[in-house]
Design brief:
The complex is a heterodimer. Chain A is mainly beta. Chain A is about 0% helix and about 50% strand. By secondary structure, chain B is an all-beta fold. The chains are: A mainly beta, B mainly beta.
Chain lengths: ~110, ~110
């Protein structure tokens, strides 16, 4: 297992388009998290899953944002009708319920909305 | 509300010297975890060190150690024998059950 994988690494899209990002967590990690990070700031929590259940989604930034983890493995984050303010780094992290050693992060997807 | 504050936007240190990064937090919880993460430019977030609040002993990981003062809600990171590869943004984070709450980060510059 090579860690948390995110795809794509970079995405440039026109305003108004929809985008979808994928995250593949460490296989034995049942918890998966999405964060957004803007330049010069710490990450901002968006949502998280325990297995396939989305246990917290009230922090998603608007109803244009949605996330899924259909089989409790990989997850997708979709942003509909993108706006320039959505430009940011989107980070995925995973961890195991049985360990609180820490969260393992992916390299992120950098979104630029033009 | 739980908050994490890093009061030093930027710190610089001479290579091989020691530097301390500050972090304070606010919570009403008694049992929690604290983390320091490192984020090199354009690279992923890497866990540096973690501290469990119920443990009085300060965590250490090789050249990295923390000064955890629970009553003062302070969690500083000491980096000894600084190396060029330590240059990065350093984030302090508080584990609030289902999410990490982050400070704004401290940019660490290593002078050769």
């Amino acid at each position: 297992d090579t860690g948390v994988s995110q795809d794509p690494r970079h995405k440039i899209t026109k305003r108004g388009q929809n985008v979808t990002f994928r995250c593949d967590p460490i296989s034995e990690h049942n918890r998966l998290y999405w964060y957004r990070q803007t330049l010069g700031q710490g990450p901002e929590f968006l949502t998280y899953f325990q297995n396939e259940a989305q246990l917290e989604k009230s922090r998603l930034l608007s109803d244009r944002f949605s996330a899924e983890r259909p089989k409790g493995s990989f997850s997708t984050l979709e942003i509909q009708r993108t706006e320039q303010g959505d430009s940011a780094m989107y980070l995925c992290a995973s961890r195991s319920d049985s360990s609180n050693y820490g969260y393992t992060f992916g390299s992120g997807t950098r979104l630029t909305v033009v | 509300a739980q908050t994490v504050t890093q009061s030093q936007p930027e710190m610089s240190v001479q290579e091989a010297e020691t530097v301390t990064l500050s972090c304070t937090y606010d919570t009403s919880e008694s049992d929690y975890y604290l983390f320091w993460y490192k984020q090199p430019p354009s690279r992923q977030m890497i866990l540096v060190i973690r501290q469990e609040a119920y443990k009085q002993q300060n965590a250490t990981e090789n050249r990295f150690s923390v000064n955890f003062q629970k009553a003062a809600k302070s969690f500083s990171l000491k980096i000894s024998d600084s190396q060029l590869g330590d240059a990065a943004m350093y984030f302090c984070a508080f584990d609030s059950n289902y999410q990490l709450i982050w400070g704004a980060g401290t940019k660490l510059i290593i002078k050769p």
